[in-house]
Every structure is written in structure tokens, then in C-alpha cells.
Amino acid sequence: MTTPRQISAQQKFQPAYLALLENGELEQRVKRAYAHLEACDLCARYCRVDRRQGIQGAACRTGERAVVHSFGAHHGEEDPLRGWRGSGTLFFSWCNLRCIFCQNWEISQKGMGREVEPEELAHMMLELQAQGCHNINLVTPSHVVAQLLAAVHIAAGKGLRLPLVYNTGGYDSLEALALLDGVVDIYMPDMKYGDSETAHRYSHVRNYWEVNQAAVKEMHRQVGDLVIDEHGLAERGLLIRHLVLPGDLANTENVLKFVAEEISINSYVNIMSQYYPCYRAHDNPPLDRPISTEEHRHALALAAKYGLQRLDERQERRGWL
Fold this sequence. Notes:
- By secondary structure, the protein is an alpha/beta fold.
- The chain has a single domain (about 5-315), classed as Alpha-Beta Barrel (TIM Barrel), CATH 3.20.20.70.
- It contains 13 helices and nine strands.
- Strands 1, 2, 3, 4, 5, 6, 7, 8 and 9 form a nine-stranded mixed sheet that branches.
- Strand 8 (about 235-245), helix 11 and strand 9 form a beta-alpha-beta unit.
- Helix 3 packs antiparallel against helix 7 (about 145-155) and helix 6 packs across helix 7.
- The longest helix is centred in the C-terminal third of the chain and has 16 residues, at about 210-225.
- It is globular and about 50 Å long.
């Protein structure tokens, strides 16, 4: 049953995509996005493959239809997303990254899931809303921007009114982000590495740091700093995730310095401590071990050094401080 405070929050909030739905721009975005699929530039790999004809040559191994692994209420996300009824997550299969330590590698690298049409995606979004979730959380969406826009257009026309969360690995093209401008309410990018050489070695993509910086700047330009309502729920803005890696492979200082000096000192940042060896990490030391308490404390000290104070509060409850 929906709580009174949830009803109150929903009455005040209007997702960004409704304005584009009303003026017809959202429908035009769908058409333009599918045109991009024909020489795909909807992620920073720029494969230029015609994904409407098949997946041969596509790094994301996804054609005209999105592949979905699962969907449901998620209670493990950041507090402003999960609230008291959960974040409504849609997990997309495949990925434009090849992280050798991926903790969801069965989904991202093996592609476990099934193809769905935009109409079914829209139904999933509406089902998550009916369950009382606080938002629609699109997990690993970079390679399915066209399909998502089509689904949002359908769902919004049928009553979807939740904020959209774009939960990405951070290797996003500016072409894709232009299509999402005014559609996405909350951008939640990873900032995985503070240098491209390490990213190439462990995630097998080129120019990650340069691409990631440009993408996060554009995301912030679109939505600004994270806005949280009186009930503690995120409504709009940027939420950055940074996973601390053993041996400082993520170059955490570069990441946090960039966020503080080139994005916003008021950025909401989750400095994540939950790294553990997975997938092929055991063959690539120092990724073959969890991070230490001291490594995570050092990352938090770097955040303090650069004046970043809006950190995910769960860190204290986990006993890291």
C-alpha cells in the first residue's frame, strides 16, 4: 500500500520527460535514436554498426531489441534512491565495458536474459511504479538508449510519473547524452578510473578517462547537483559512484579532484567499499584481494582533502569511520 508521504512526494514531483511528451519532442527523440542505431554511435566505442540489421561487429552484442535480465524493487541502492519501497531496477544484459572484475559478469559478459520489445519494457516500468518503487533505475543502459527512449515514450503516455535514473558505467557518448537531455532526471555514472591506461588494461576500452570526464560534465550540465526532497528521496541531479580498487588502481585522487574542481563541490558521491575479487580478478593481482579498511579510509580522506562532503551516509553505518 502506498504511504501518505509517498503520495505527497509524487504529487509534488514531475519527471522531466513529461514536458517532452506533451510537446511531441519525446516521439522525435525516439525516431532520431533509432536512426543512430543504423551506424551506431550510442556509446563511446563508436562501432558504427547497423544494429537494426544484427549484432555482428557490435561491441555491446545487442541488436534492435534490448535484452533484459531481470527487474524489481532493489533495496541495496543509495538511500536517496531506495527510500522505503525500493528503487525500481531494470537490469540490462551485455555491456559496452569488459571489466575483468565485474561482479555481475554473468549478465554483462554472458548476456543472460531475453530480448524484449519496447512495449514490454514500458510494461515493466509501469509494474515497478504500481509496486510503489520510488524511481525507475536503468542499470547498464548505455547500449540501449534508443530502446529505452521508445519504452519511456510508451510508458509516459500510459501514466509513468517516476524519476528516471540512468545508472551507467560512465563510458557514454555525447551523442547519446544529447538524446537523453530533458528525459533523464537522475544521472548515476560510475567514475571507475582516473586514468585511461588502467581502464584499457582492466576494462578493455580506450580513452575511458577522457570520455568519462566529458560525459559526467554533460550530465551535470543537464541536471545539476543532486536534489533530495523532504523525505530523503532523490528527485533530480547527479549522483557519482566510485569503486575503490586494491592498490589504488582506480586512481581515486584524480577522480575526486576532478569532481571537486570541475563538476561541483556539492556533488553527491558514493565512495564504494564493497570490492571483492570476481570473474577474472583472481588472475590479475592486486585485484585478487578485497580492499583494506585503510585503503577505504584513505579514499575518504582524499574526499575531505578536496572538500567533498556530500558522501553516501551508509559509510558510517558500515563501520568504516
